[in-house]
Design goal:
By secondary structure, this protein is of the alpha/beta class. It is built from 31 helices and 22 strands. The chain is globular.
């Protein structure tokens, strides 16, 4: 890569256009060589006769995507980070201190270090394109803005708007950027370069020169909140909100808040930047940051994968698809498909069901319309992409059909066989089953190479994971097509082999099943869930999760799981009792918890214990036991799924699936990364102890027992894995 060519000065009369176009990279990112070249360019402009300068990108839909995460990952000590940031501060300060005005002409992603560079400029223009997003996502990687973002953004847009962006790692669209004062003008993409030049020439003509934007309160409320007493309240409330969201597991947002509190309104820039740098160094060396960066790389790797090892296999384009079943899942699948531009035909057995499916999609888009994420035209455009009916009209031109009907093998096979008659011969049919055999189901399809699983998680529009389930006869082209379709829908696909529970449910069911045993042992619903959420970091505890899934579904899947895996699976005596109760969970407002008409949880239903024939809970078990009995069973099952059954090929796939499909705490790196932090020998030892006291369901499975002999780690086993030969190249990284 020629760094000199990647950042070049193009004269436009009295204006210097600084063009950003990293050779050999899809995005612009601020690596060490790029920063050194930027330093040279700024010095050259400063020593020239130019009277204004404009930063502009020549990348498609990218301004600057951020700093180089690969470099950040390679640094181990605080001094390494301090040295790199100190150099960056000097370079960016030179833009701010230049004798001529600098303008950032932003089109596309302007994130992290890119946003921080733009903040050093005197003026900022941006395109009105949907790809234009400006923000500081660092906390999502366990970091804080380190190139001056914690200092300059509050100065530019005010305290409230900057806290909203920095603490949540948000980006804002052009409309919001203009509203909060982050940019001075929003112009059509095609006119951005022309307007940036005009803007610079106007500054020269008017002799407007430099400007350091200082946010000014516009209302009485804003003045009150930015006064000294008001600030105390703002920071106090922000901290309270953070703790509620992070439960104290993520140090970066709290550190960012501390930096802003210390530096807001500070006139000494160097001192403020030093405070920010020291805080950055503190969070950058934490395990939390390392784990979040690992998760980032896992997700980036998926973007380059096709779902198959043969790279010559190409996915088919999908412009039209059908969904069988317009229930909760079917309506959700139709919505995410139509949202990304696909024409969708829903089929069900009644007009009422079709209406419910359409209404489910409408509600999601109405919320987006209300929040001004889409306009009325876009809303109607999306709604127009979904149609419905009781017959197979429209199925003749679809490339994909997703089946989301009742979880019954005989009914599914009958419907799949019938559907195939009405579709093009090369149409791919995918089942959304969560528990039934894809290989068995494929026997009903006349062309089983075009049949597979596409398992979405509920609620479809929020849950990012899609399991792409490969049956015994599924073809590569079908897998690649559904893998790409999932990505188009904004999902994270993981290819799994057909097997009981596939991957996520297979690991999750022992975890949920063990919660019932804890209930038998005298634990309360709220105490168990509290341990998992507030002490371990799960988004919801096992009982709340069962309510979300549906108690009827959960108990039915436990039964299927038991039938598939035999004596190795032990089911609590409470399971059949729960199946007989009129408790479906959230969907009928009564499960382990009670729910209001809006679906909001209103606390544990105390009558659940009596209905299950249990005494009043006394919570006799320790936090350690409650957590280990659930988490270690997942790890135990994962060892068999990964090493022996080869449901997936790498520990990264297990971890990504569990994070995206269950909300397993990302700050722990994933289920198997967490297991490696404890050691396989410790986990097997603890399982043996529980097995001696509670039964064979805790007995370490052969793969884990074998690992424990040498305390081997899951992530050490990748080098001997056959899949390593086909590993995805390390993705480009930035923040």
């Amino acid at each position: 890569m020629s760094v000199e060519e990647s950042i070049r000065i193009v004269p436009k009369g009295k204006v210097a256009f600084i063009e950003l176009d990293l050779i050999g990279e899809k995005v612009n990112k601020l690596s060490t060589p790029v920063m050194e070249r930027l330093k040279e360019v700024i010095q050259e402009v400063e020593q020239s006769e130019f009277q204004a300068a404009v930063f502009i990108s020549r990348k498609k839909n990218i301004f600057i995507a951020g700093a180089d995460i690969e470099e950040i990952k390679s640094m181990k000590e605080k001094k390494d980070f301090a040295q790199a940031i100190s150099k960056a501060h000097k370079i960016l300060n030179a833009i701010e201190d230049s004798k001529i005005p600098f303008i950032a002409a932003i089109h596309g992603a302007c994130l992290g270090g890119g946003c921080e560079l733009a903040l050093t400029c005197d003026y900022r223009l941006c395109s009105d394109d949907k790809s234009t997003k400006i923000g500081l996502p660092e906390v999502r990687l366990g970091l804080i803005p380190g190139f001056g973002g914690c200092v300059r953004l509050p100065r530019t847009v005010g305290l409230m708007a900057s806290l909203d962006i920095i603490l949540a790692g948000k980006s804002v669209n052009p409309r919001k950027a203009k509203k909060i004062g982050l940019v001075d003008e929003v112009v059509p993409q095609t006119l951005l370069e022309k307007r940036a030049l005009e803007f610079a020439e106007e500054l020269i003509q008017k002799n407007s020169g430099k400007r350091q934007k200082q946010w000014k309160p516009r209302s009485l409320m804003e003045r009150a909140l930015t006064s000294f007493p008001g600030r105390l309240v703002v920071f106090q409330q922000a901290h309270k909100k953070l703790l509620k969201q992070t439960k104290g597991f993520y140090p970066a947002p709290e550190k960012a808040l501390e930096v802003i509190r210390k530096t807001y309104g500070m006139s000494n820039r160097e001192k403020a930047l030093l405070i920010e740098m020291e805080a950055f160094c503190e969070v950058a060396v934490t395990d939390v940051s390392k784990h979040l960066i690992d998760v980032f790389f896992m997700m980036e790797a998926v973007k380059k994968q096709t779902g198959v090892e043969d790279k010559s296999v190409k996915p088919r384009p999908v412009t039209h698809m059908a969904v069988l079943g317009a229930g909760t899942m079917g309506g959700g699948i139709a919505q995410v498909a139509a949202d990304c531009g696909i024409e969708v035909r829903m089929k069900d057995i009644s007009n009422e069901a079709i209406a419910l499916g359409l209404q489910a999609a409408r509600k999601i888009w109405e919320k987006q319309l209300k929040r001004k994420k889409i306009n009325k035209y876009e809303f109607q455009q999306k709604m127009n992409r979904i149609s419905g009916g009781l017959d197979y009209s429209g199925f003749g031109n679809v490339q994909v059909v997703v089946e989301a009907i009742v979880e019954d093998m005989d009914i599914k096979k009958k419907v799949i066989a019938e559907t195939a008659k009405h579709c093009p011969e090369d149409c791919i049919i995918a089942t959304n089953t969560s528990s039934l055999s894809v290989t068995e189901m494929a026997k009903a399809h006349p062309r089983p190479e075009n049949f597979l699983g596409m398992h979405f998680f509920n609620p479809v529009h929020r849950m990012p994971l899609v399991e792409v389930i490969r049956g015994e006869k599924t073809g590569d082209e079908a897998v690649a097509t559904i893998f790409e379709l999932a990505k188009k829908m904004g999902k994270t696909p993981v290819v799994v082999k057909d097997g009981p529970g596939f991957l996520v449910n297979r690991l999750l069911l022992p975890y949920m099943g063990e919660a019932l045993f804890l209930l038998e042992d005298g634990m309360s619903v709220e105490k168990v869930d509290y341990y998992y959420t507030h002490k371990f970091g799960m988004p919801m505890g096992p009982f709340r999760l069962m309510d979300e899934v549906g108690l009827d579904v959960g108990m039915k899947v436990l039964k299927i799981f038991k039938a598939s895996l035999g004596d190795r699976i032990e089911v609590s005596s409470l399971a059949p009792k729960i199946a007989e109760l009129d408790r479906l969970g959230k969907k009928n407002k009564k499960g382990f918890y009670l729910y209001n008409d809006k679906g909001r949880e209103e606390g544990v239903d105390p009558s659940i214990y009596k209905e299950l024939g249990l005494e009043r809970p006394t919570d006799p078990l320790s936090e350690k036991e409650c957590l280990e009995r659930g988490i270690f069973q997942m790890i135990n099952e994962a060892s068999l799924a990964l090493i022996e059954d080869r449901i997936v090929k790498t520990p990264e796939e297990v971890d990504l699936a569990m994070i995206m499909g269950t909300g397993f705490p990302p700050f722990r790196g994933g289920l198997l990364k967490y297991a490696d932090s404890l050691g396989s020998s410790y986990i097997a030892q603890e399982l043996d102890v529980y097995a001696s006291r509670l039964g064979p369901r805790f007995k370490p499975l052969p793969p884990l027992a074998q690992m424990a002999k040498t305390d081997r780690k899951f992530y050490e086993m990748r080098s001997s894995s056959k899949s390593e030969k086909n590993s995805t190249p390390q993705p480009s990284a930035r923040v």
